[in-house]
Structure formats: C-alpha cells, structure tokens
Amino acid sequence: MELDVLEKATTKDLKLKLREKVLRLKKERNAYIVAHNYQNYEVQEVADILGDSLALSKATVGTGYDVIVFCGVDFMAESAKILNPEKTVLLPVREADCPMALMVTPERLREKKAQYPDAAVVCYVNSSAEIKAESDIACTSANAVQIVKSLPNKQILFVPDKNLGHYVQRFCPEKEIILWQGFCTTHIRVTAGDVLKMKDKYPGSPFIAHPECPPDVIDLADHVASTSGFSPYIAKSKAETFIIGTEVGMIYKLKKDHPSKRFVMPTEQFVCQTMKMTTLGWVAHALEVLEHKIEIPEPIRVKAERTLRRMMDVSGDHPNAAIASY
Ligand code: 13P
Ligand code: SF4
C-alpha cells in the first residue's frame, strides 16, 4: 500500500475508535458534550449540542447530566461552571484560552471603573469569571445591543472587545460607550481589502460578518450576526454563494445545514488557534480521567453568576433567544 493511503486508513481507523470511545465514556459518565461552532468537525460530530457562546451556556442549565464537557475555550467552560456549580465541568485542553479575554485584568478594570463612576460595566462573555464578578451585566455577540439598550445609564464601560463595542455604538447613539482596547486575535486578521476582493470575485454574494470584525469590515457586511445568526440568514436568502466573515470552523456547520450552497472565506487567516486545540483524543481523555475540572472561588462565582443571570433575564431564558441577529 502507498504510504499516504496507509496513513489515511490508519487515521480514519484511529478516529473511528476515538469516536466510539468518546460515545461509550459519555454514557458511563452521564456526560453532556457541548461544542462551540468553531470546533474541529470531529468534535462537532460527537457533541450533544452545537452553538454560540450564549446558547451553550444556557443549554447547560437544568440538564440531568453529572458532567459537562465544554469543547470551546476557557471562558465558556467557566460560564457553564458559574451557572452549574454543583456539576463537574471539564475543559478538555487546559491551555485553550481566549486571547481577547486575557486583554482585561480585574486590577485595570477597577482603575477604569474609578475613572467612570457613573458608567454601567458591560462585559462581553469572552471574559474571565473575575471580570464578570466586577461587571454589572454580561452580553454576547447575539444580544449586546439589547443589553446595552436595557440599561438606564448613559455611560457604558464596555469590556474587552473594542470592535463589538464599536458595533453596539452604531445602534445606541443615545449612549456613550467607553471602549476597552481589546480585540479578537482571529477576527482582526480580515481586512476590508480581503472582503472587496471576494466581492469582486463573487458578485452579488452576501458577506456575513461577525461583530468582532473591525469597523471597516463591518461597513461592507450585508448581514452581521453571532455565530448562531449565520445559518438562519442563509436559509432565507436566495443567493448561492456566501462570503463568510468568521472563524473557519463555522463552514462545517453551514455546509451541513445548507448542502446546496457555497461558502467562501475572505482570508485563510480565519483560524482561532486555541479553539482548534480540542481534538477527539482530548475529549476522550477528558472523559476518561475527568480533566480539566473548572474551579472558581465561591465569592467570585456568586458575583459572576449575578452578572450572567442579569443578562439572561434581559435576553430571555430560552436558549433560542440567543439566536438573534441585527
Ligand atoms: P459567538 O459564538 O457567541 O458568536 O462568539 C464568537 C466567538 O468568538 C467565541 O469565542
Ligand atoms: Fe477568542 Fe476570537 Fe478565538 Fe473567539 S475566535 S475564542 S474571541 S480569540
């Protein structure tokens, strides 16, 4: 047998075995596997639920499972633990963090709060439990406009994503949004030039952007949505080709949802390295040895829970309430 054929056969065999192992351990542990839309396709395939940050956090609440395996990045698993303190919440790869969430520290946030005592602090869910504990209310890319509009304060201190904050400001001219200088290291890589080239190449094809993209890229979008908002827009559109302005993992779900449509990326740089750290092997390992357990000091967890629950009260409790787009 040729070497590459042999390698492919071995890899396929290994993946099948790992998949069987994950499914077996999932039953034995009474575990619920949740996966973000950016996960590797092999991980998406074994998940009980696939979704955006908010839908996944909400989906973990009130289930009869003992263990939650969060296939995503650390702040997502932390949100699941904040909302489900009695459950074992596992992040398969401890190093799977979100570079943007690391761009704000509690100390610096406290300094900024002292500078703007009248401002309400809105934290994007892409933030640590400590930042949530320091904030008044959380938001996601699906509900950020709704959350900011719901607040009585004119001044809003928005952390950490300056691009999402800038996007929200477009819809809330009555507010003064103080932007933190954080950004998503993945969405920052697409440029307006990349998008214009694709628009030239595929005339008439809608460009759908995630609000973490820079403002000049958002200006070119036909639709802006959280990762859960891409598929519903495509379902309603008559177009055949779509330019996808978010992480490449999204393509797998979109192809599954819309097999007859074509999806193109404006840049091959749209890869979130830490989202891609989780493999089937790590999911199997997590279930086997029950690692890595998320632990949050109780005083921080309680405050962070209040911040998340306030958001859920405003956006509605049902998971599908998260599937909003503007
Ligand atoms: P959503 O899935 O909530 O749109 O978030 C995107 C993201 O970057 C998560 O890290
Ligand atoms: Fe963080 Fe961006 Fe990766 Fe999402 S895509 S986890 S915001 S770095």
Q: Which CATH top level class of the domain at 2-97 and 276-295 fits?
A: Alpha Beta
**Structure classification:** alpha/beta
Average pLDDT works out at 94
CATH topological fold name of the domain at 2-97 and 276-295: Rossmann fold
Number of strands: 12
- Can you give the helix content as a percent range? 40-55%
At CATH level 2, the architecture of the domain at 2-97 and 276-295 is 3-Layer(aba) Sandwich
Annotation field: number of helices: 14
User: Would you identify the regions where 5 or more consecutive residues have pLDDT less than 50?
Assistant: 318-326
Let me know the largest β-sheet: 4 strands, parallel
Overall outline: globular
Radius of gyration: 20 Å
Question: Which ions and ligands are bound to the chains?
Answer: 1,3-dihydroxyacetonephosphate, iron/sulfur cluster
CATH homologous superfamily classification of the domain at 2-97 and 276-295: NadA-like
List the helices and strands and how they pair.
Elements: H1 3-28, E1 31-36, H2 41-46, E2 49-51, H3 53-59, E3 67-71, H4 74-83, E4 88-90, H5 106-115, E5 120-124, H6 129-134, E6 137-139, H7 144-150, E7 155-159, H8 162-171, E8 176-179, H9 192-201, E9 207-209, H10 215-218, E10 223-224, H11 230-236, E11 241-245, H12 249-257, E12 262-264, H13 280-289, H14 298-315
Parallel strand pairs: 1-2, 1-3, 3-4, 5-6, 5-7, 7-8, 9-10, 9-11, 11-12
The structure holds 1,3-dihydroxyacetonephosphate and iron/sulfur cluster.
Iron/sulfur cluster is lined by residues 73, 98-100, 126, 184-187, 212, 247, 272, 274-275.
